[in-house]
């Protein structure tokens, strides 16, 4: 007797786990993509991922898929992002996909396979399926969480000057913020703490900058009503 879960009037659809892995590289936010070798979308770039196996949970599946592209322990943060179920998202037939958001700190340089590369999120190549749209959802989630959580810990190196942290935030949120304002907001929320150390002097000399670190390396809501907003255009 066939299972009700796969009967003709209630078909079962393949379920995939995908990962939008983001990292600030050379002062720009990048996403990790791999180039498809086979149809559909041969030659296009896609998010790492693949089918959910019968005995797997989604978190286990995405970790397995990522392990073939990047060392999973290099991800400082991984969270479920969204599920896509558009009947036409895959030309081969209906599939459901659950996407995750992963973050890699800026000081790491993961070794990637030959078919995988980092791409600036503001200049994506041609992408397969709905993966470009999923990257957009990942950006929206990250930018929102930078406003009300301490998730910056997953993008920044272990220690940094405020100027260096500002560069990470500017790359991630996509518009300019001042180092002074960023420092004031994050210190007031208790997100940062001084290390007591100074940065090495730069070529231009001057007073060495104080080094900071995030007070916690796990996700915390620091201000549920806060939001970073892009500068408003002037009223003419």
* Number of E-type strands: 9
Number of separate helices: 4
Q: Any low-confidence stretches, pLDDT <50, length ≥5?
A: none
Q: Which structural category fits the helices and strands?
A: alpha+beta
- Which sheet architecture does the biggest sheet show? 7 strands, mixed
Distance between the termini: 72 Å
Oligomerization status of the protein chains? single chain
Rough outline: elongated
What percentage of residues falls in helices of 4 or more residues?
10-25%
Strand content bin? 15-25%
- Can you give the mean pLDDT? 91
Radius of gyration: 20 Å
Helix and strand run: EEEEHEEEHHHEE
Can you describe this structure?
By secondary structure, the chain is of the alpha+beta class. It is 21% helix and 24% strand. The strands form two sheets. Strands 1, 2, 3, 4, 5, 6 and 7 form a seven-stranded mixed sheet that branches. A hairpin with a 2-residue loop joins strand 1 and strand 2 (28-35). Helix 3 (162-173) packs across helix 4 (179-188). The relative contact order is 0.16. The mean pLDDT is 91.
Detail the topology: elements first, then pairings.
Layout: E1 15-25, E2 28-35, E3 45-46, E4 49-51, H1 58-67, E5 77-84, E6 96-103, E7 116-120, H2 131-148, H3 162-173, H4 179-188, E8 192-198, E9 210-214
Parallel strand pairs: 1-6
Antiparallel strand pairs: 1-2, 1-4, 2-3, 2-7, 5-6, 8-9
Key attributes of the depicted protein:
9 strands; elongated; seven-stranded mixed sheet; 236 residues; alpha+beta; 4 helices
């Amino acid at each position: 007797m066939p299972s009700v879960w796969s009967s003709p009037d209630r078909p079962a659809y393949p379920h995939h786990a995908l990962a939008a892995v983001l990292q600030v590289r050379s002062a720009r936010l990048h996403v990790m993509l791999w180039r498809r070798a086979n149809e559909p979308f041969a030659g296009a770039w896609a998010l790492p991922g693949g089918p959910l196996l019968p005995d797997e949970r989604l978190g286990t599946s995405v970790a397995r898929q990522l392990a073939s592209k990047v060392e999973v322990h290099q991800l400082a943060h991984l969270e479920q992002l969204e599920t896509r179920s558009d009947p036409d998202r895959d030309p081969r037939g209906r599939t459901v996909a659950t996407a995750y958001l992963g973050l890699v700190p800026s000081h790491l340089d993961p070794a990637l396979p030959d078919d995988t590369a980092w791409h600036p999120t503001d200049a994506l190549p041609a992408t397969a399926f709905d993966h470009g749209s999923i990257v957009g959802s990942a950006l929206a989630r990250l930018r929102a969480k930078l406003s009300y959580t301490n998730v910056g810990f997953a993008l920044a190196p272990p220690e940094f000057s405020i100027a260096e942290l500002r560069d990470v935030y500017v790359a991630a949120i996509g518009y300019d913020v001042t180092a002074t304002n960023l420092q004031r907001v994050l210190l007031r929320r208790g997100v940062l703490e001084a290390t007591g150390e100074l940065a090495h002097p730069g070529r231009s000399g001057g007073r060495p900058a104080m080094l900071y670190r995030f007070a916690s390396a796990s996700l915390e809501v620091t201000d549920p009503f806060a939001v970073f907003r892009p500068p408003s255009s002037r009223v003419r």
